[in-house]
Amino acid sequence: MLISGKLNKIRxxxxxxxxxxxxxxxxxxxxxxxxxxxFILGMLFVLASVAIYFWxxxxxxHSIRVHCPACGKVTKVLGKKDECxxxxxxxxxxxxxxxxxxxxxx
Length: 106
Ligand SMILES: [Zn+2]
Fold this sequence. Notes:
Elements: H1 6-30, H2 35-62, E1 64-67, E2 74-77, E3 81-83, E4 90-92
Antiparallel strand pairs: 1-2, 3-4
Helix pairs in contact: 1-2
Bound molecules: zinc ion.
């Protein structure tokens, strides 16, 4: 579930970035002479992650809520095409991809 859907992918990336940032800061503790350098580097990773989280928040409010036809849950679609956050079914808002009967987006 962590890597399904664009929003979740970005979120997972931001989470990894926090771990990397903390990891880099820990290296600073082991390498006393370069501690300040690693600390700043680690802080940059964490700040970048916070910025990404903020960006996700904005994206999330702009994304469209859709009932997934495959699993019936409400998921968010970012852009024209995205995966369902729950079952990874590919959802599209492009009318070209719509089957001839009903549209999936409401
Ligand atoms: Zn689904």
